[in-house]
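=== Structure Prediction Worksheet ===
Name of assembly: unnamed complex
Input type: mixed (protein and possibly other molecules)
Chain count: two
Listed entries:
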Amino acid sequence: MIKIKVTTFSGDEKYIEVPEGSDYESLLIDLGINPETVIVYRDQQVVPLDECVEPGEIKILRVVSGG
Amino acid sequence: MEDVERKIKHSIRRYKMIEQEDIVAVALSGGKDSVVVLHILHSLFKDRPDIRLVAISIDEGIHDYREKTLKTARQICKRLGIPHETVSFEDQFGLTLDQMTNVGERAPCTYCGVFRRTILNRTAKALSATKLATGHDLDDEAQAVLMNLLRGDMERLVRLVPAKKPGLVPRIKPLRSVSEKEVALYAIVKELPISFDECPYVSFSLRAEIRDMLNVFEAKHPGTKYSLMKSFDVLTKSLKKEDVDLRRCETCGEPTMGDLCQACKLLKKFFPS
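=== Predicted Assembly ===
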């Protein structure tokens, strides 16, 4: 399992574990977040959602407006 | 990112959005969509001496929100060297949106939509603009099409089809084939100043439900939004109305279907005399 820290747009921080080889898209789906509505940052860089998750820290930014 | 630029160029060409000698007014709120439209039109046309860009921002008078996005709007115009005009509800109509909402019976989005449309058209004309560009993206357009279909509002559906109407500066939507997420990514990668603030009057309306539904479909079946717009484009060929003859509003002279335009009708409630 890979352990990572996730900071979401609401400012929540949590630690989660995902199986080796998972990508960021499946991580978002596990968190109940629609991949169409957010951008994922790692080390201040946008990461493609089909990339494999690496241990460390990510930030999730909501980009789809409300209303 | 080249993909986003290519799609936008393709839309501009395909729908003949911008032609020689055009003066394009860009409706600039400071949100990501409008900042990206301005940036892309600037990069596409900056070397064309016959095409000019000008930005219009509207200060509706929304406390603690619009100040911030207007700052972003000024910043991007300064950076790109684009003339920038800001027009306020208060100057044009005597009331801010906050005041209208406090006093009036209608929803804030009704006042905002009607008055904003009027000001944009009026200001675009005053600046001799031949086109008015807005930041509507693929998500906005797909939501509008599906919402009008589900409500059975064919009149509004038909209104999404561009038509020439005397007195109205033609609207163009260069981002209509780019999703909201792609627009956000573009803005972030190009390090454009954008404001992620949300309007305090945002309501959880039917549109929000449709937005969520479309995003669920898009995630499961990539291409859903694009397909919906493709179908709409085919449908519009049969939907296309005759270019309507509009009258002039008795009070302000803006184009309207009836005697008074929507803006003047709403204003009459605030200032009855």
